[in-house]
């Protein structure tokens, strides 16, 4: 049989970096390439207790079909929580529970972007979102990420040059992959530019609660008096990614379209997971749990940066982080970064080549991303030591 795929997917090619991940399947390879929460970070006892209680008291309530918008108490509690702690969401917004934040990117693109229209992204940016935008044949336009967030001069140029831009996709806190946090000044400027050019903002914030140093900054959505911002939050990095529960706070008119799009995607998000998240949020000390996660990751992040200083300086430089799960490392400009990453994996340590996160993967790039939340301390030390040794030979 000769299969003929849709124009939409026939353009999608497996990424060159998969080559490297093939080697990472070897159990001897230290993987610094994932982005999973640490095994110590899961509230296993609470999740077990809540699930047992639900199954004892009312099993059918989580085994039956449910509503597309999401479990109503969870939506209400999240509305309150996000308003109280993050001044996020107002009367003209509504909240939709989704199957991971990944689905928010999908629904927003489906609802807002025609083929060939532009999505402005940070360069580098999260590969999962970029691939979703690509799958709708959106044109990706990258804006350079600087140490305090994307360049606002470049953003304005790109907005001027692309009147068919539909939204600006941004990860303002501890960005994946660069680790960069956008300054308050840039958050405000981005909002102003979005308003001036009539382009929406999709604010993706899965790591905002994982700050290890410095002051929390307001969400861009907290400035939103004009219905310009769609906010994406997720329980993946603070409860469990396997449960697939996330939420979007969006202007009501957009919310309604997202609901219709979601009906066609998966009808509703797993109701059992939603119930567990709701009880964990309301009947347990969620803020104490977040503090516990910050304690775990602060230690790991510091340890990882100490290892980079000890084994890799001055050949590999990196950007110090205030939160999140990733560190972006730079090789000297003369070094062939993809060849370095390949050599690393052959020497049993896997990192992600930086060009995988670019809107144009073929652009020259001298950086790679490492993750410190998944490996044990021993694995981190082993992996970073190998990177340092390889870097000495550059
Ligand atoms: C920036 C960013 N957005 C979205 C996601 C997807 O998260 P979820 O598990 O909620 O789909 C991730 C996952 O790593 C991410 O890093």
Automatic annotation (TrEMBL):
CDD domains from the UniProt entry: AAT_like
Keywords of this entry: Aminotransferase, Pyridoxal phosphate, Transferase
Cofactor(s), names only, from the UniProt record: pyridoxal 5'-phosphate
KW rRNA-binding (keyword) present: no
Residue ranges constituting the Aminotransferase class I/classII large domain according to the UniProt record: 28-385
Keyword Transferase: yes
GO molecular function list: pyridoxal phosphate binding; transaminase activity
GO biological process: alpha-amino acid metabolic process
Subunit structure: Homodimer.
Family: Belongs to the class-I pyridoxal-phosphate-dependent aminotransferase family.
Official protein name in the record: PLP-dependent aminotransferase family protein
């Amino acid at each position: 049989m000769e299969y003929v795929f849709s124009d939409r997917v026939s353009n999608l090619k497996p990424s060159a970096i998969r080559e490297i991940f093939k080697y990472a399947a070897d159990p001897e390879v230290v993987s610094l390439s994932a982005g999973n929460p640490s095994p110590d970070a899961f509230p296993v006892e609470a999740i077990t207790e809540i699930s047992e209680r639900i199954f004892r008291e009312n099993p059918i309530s989580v085994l039956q079909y449910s509503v597309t918008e999401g479990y109503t108490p969870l939506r209400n509690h999240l509305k309150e929580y996000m308003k109280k702690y993050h001044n996020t969401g107002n009367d003209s917004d509504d909240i939709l529970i989704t199957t991971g934040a990944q689905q928010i990117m999908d629904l927003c693109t489906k609802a807002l972007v025609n083929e060939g229209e532009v999505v402005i992204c940070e360069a580098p940016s999260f590969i999962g979102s970029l691939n979703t935008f690509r799958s709708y044949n959106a044109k990706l336009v990258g804006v350079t990420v600087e140490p305090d967030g994307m360049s606002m001069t470049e953003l304005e140029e790109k907005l001027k040059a692309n009147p068919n831009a539909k939204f600006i996709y941004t990860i303002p806190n501890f960005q994946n992959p660069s680790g960069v946090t956008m300054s308050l000044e840039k958050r405000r400027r981005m909002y102003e530019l979005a308003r001036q050019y009539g382009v929406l903002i999709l604010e993706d914030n899965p790591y905002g609660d994982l700050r290890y140093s410095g002051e929390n900054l307001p969400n861009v959505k907290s400035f939103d008096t004009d219905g310009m911002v769609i906010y994406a939050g997720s329980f993946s990095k603070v409860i469990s990614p396997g449960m697939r529960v996330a939420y979007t706070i969006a202007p009501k008119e957009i919310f309604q379209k997202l609901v219709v799009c979601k009906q066609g995607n998966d009808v509703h998000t797993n109701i059992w997971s939603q119930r567990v998240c709701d009880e964990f949020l309301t009947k347990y000390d969620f803020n104490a749990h977040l503090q516990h996660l910050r304690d775990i990751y602060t230690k790991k992040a510091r340890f990882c940066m100490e290892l980079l200083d000890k084994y890799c300086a001055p050949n590999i430089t990196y950007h110090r982080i205030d939160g999140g799960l990733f560190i972006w490392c730079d090789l000297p400009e003369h070094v062939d970064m993809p060849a370095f990453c390949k050599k690393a994996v052959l020497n049993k340590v896997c990192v992600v080549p930086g060009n995988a996160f670019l809107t144009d993967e073929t652009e020259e790039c001298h950086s790679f991303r490492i993750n410190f939340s998944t490996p044990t301390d021993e694995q981190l030390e082993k992996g970073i030591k190998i990177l340092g040794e390889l870097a000495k030979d550059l």
